[in-house]
Write a structure and sequence with these properties.
Length: 418
């Protein structure tokens, strides 16, 4: 039977203010044009006010309001009644000696089994033909395992997932442990990493299942404009991310402070797009900024507003100093507008940032090293800066073109009909 019904599982509804909506909005346009039925099922959102676009059937949320004690009971119940709890323990007895790993396993299986129960009921209540169904989870997480467990009852169902950064690399966690991953690979049909680095990582760690791992890049549309370079002597910097520990925005503030101190006669304007729990730390850093360094914080704004900013304001460089990444959509957006990028050499970033279109920053770099790289960029002659802007657009067209990447991804999904 033709696989033409897609269930798409994400965290929040596409119109939400969460950053995830930026990632999925471009892709949804292509999915809805290539499947006869598309259900979007957010798993962490109650969907009070979302009105779907024509052609998208919106499933109700899998989120259930429960009291903390009730959730804890469910986690323990679902875990201790799952054969995979004991299989995982038998495969690694050290889990019993590490309370953090044990807790992570219990929570993982609790979420997965609880979601699996909800999903089976959803399919039954909606009379969904499982033979025509593809289950697609946007994050490689417990929800993916909950979907994959359905294959025991419905072997013809197809289950696939993307894998990005935090959901892929175990080392990004305080405890480097991803529960039941080998069992998940044994059940799932395909895992699509957003970078070659992610593909290589999974292949090295799970070589038995390398045939199930494929790179499927994300992408953004190419705008009909190029962002302008500053012509008034001001050096304009943009960063765009959540202000959370992994993004190291306070470090960027220290770096720009050092850059400004070394170039006291040149005005620098730093614009940050995004918000988060470390905003106060960043604001503390700005109190020591020299008079020639000015900062503007836009908070969380829509994807359209980001492009409007790039269209109507000159930007000289986009900077990302994260300690972990997949391939940031924010970098893709900047490059699509012809903005050079200075970014950490982590995850899949080296696949799209190089000396032609910017500079890579070694992950271990301190304030002094990063500031020196930015100062080097500031001192480049105009013709070199223009070259970097040209190659930013070029790399976007070659690797991050939304139409090409998403259509290739959909072509891969259609192969499950063969």
């Amino acid at each position: 039977m033709k696989k033409d019904h897609l269930l798409f599982f994400c965290n929040y509804r596409p119109s939400s203010s969460f950053n995830e909506s930026v990632f999925i909005s471009n892709e949804l346009k292509f999915l809805k044009d290539n499947f006869s039925s598309l259900n979007i099922i957010p798993t962490m959102d109650l969907l009070n006010d979302y009105k779907p676009e024509e052609g998208i059937i919106l499933g109700y949320s899998a989120k259930r309001k429960k009291k903390i004690l009730s959730k804890i009971f469910c986690y323990f119940f679902y875990s201790f009644t799952s054969v995979y709890f004991y299989k995982e323990i038998l495969s690694n007895f050290n889990i019993l000696l590490n309370i953090d790993k044990l807790a992570r396993l219990i929570i993982f299986l609790g979420i997965a089994k609880g979601f699996n129960k909800w999903l089976k009921n959803y399919l039954k209540c909606n009379n969904v033909s499982v033979d025509s169904l593809i289950l697609y989870t946007y994050w490689f997480c417990p929800i993916t395992f909950g979907c994959a467990l359905l294959k025991k009852h419905y072997p013809n169902i197809t289950v696939i997932s993307r894998a990005h950064g935090f959901d892929l690399y175990a080392e990004r966690q305080k405890i480097a442990y991803k529960p039941c991953r080998s069992f998940l690979f044994s059940l799932i049909d395909k895992v699509y990493t957003v970078s070659d680095d992610g593909k290589y990582y999974l292949e090295c760690n799970y070589p038995k299942y390398s045939y199930k791992i494929e790179t499927a890049r994300l992408g953004t549309s190419l705008p009909d404009f190029s962002c302008k370079i500053s012509t008034d002597g001001i050096f304009r910097v943009v960063s765009c991310s959540s202000i959370i520990p992994v993004k190291r925005v306070p470090l960027l503030a220290k770096v720009l402070c050092k850059v400004a101190e070394k170039n006291i006669d040149r005005k620098i304007i730093w614009t940050h797009i995004g918000d988060g729990i470390e905003r106060e730390k960043v604001m503390i850093e700005t109190q020591s900024f020299p008079s020639n360094l000015h900062c503007k914080f836009h908070g969380n704004i829509s994807n359209e507003e980001v492009f409007s900013f790039y269209k109507n304001n000159p930007v000289d460089v986009f900077i990302n100093v994260s300690c972990y990444e997949g391939i940031p959509v924010s970098i893709m957006e900047a490059q699509s507008c012809g903005i050079p990028v200075v970014a950490s050499s982590v995850g899949g970033i080296p696949e799209i940032v190089n000396n032609n279109n910017g500079f890579l920053v070694p992950y271990e770099s301190k304030v002094k090293t990063i500031s020196e790289i930015i100062i080097t960029f500031m001192q480049l002659p105009v013709d070199e800066l223009e070259k970097k802007r040209f190659f930013s657009k070029k790399i976007h067209f070659e690797k991050n073109n939304a139409e090409k990447n998403f259509l290739n991804f959909i072509t891969s999904l259609k192969k499950f009909n063969d």
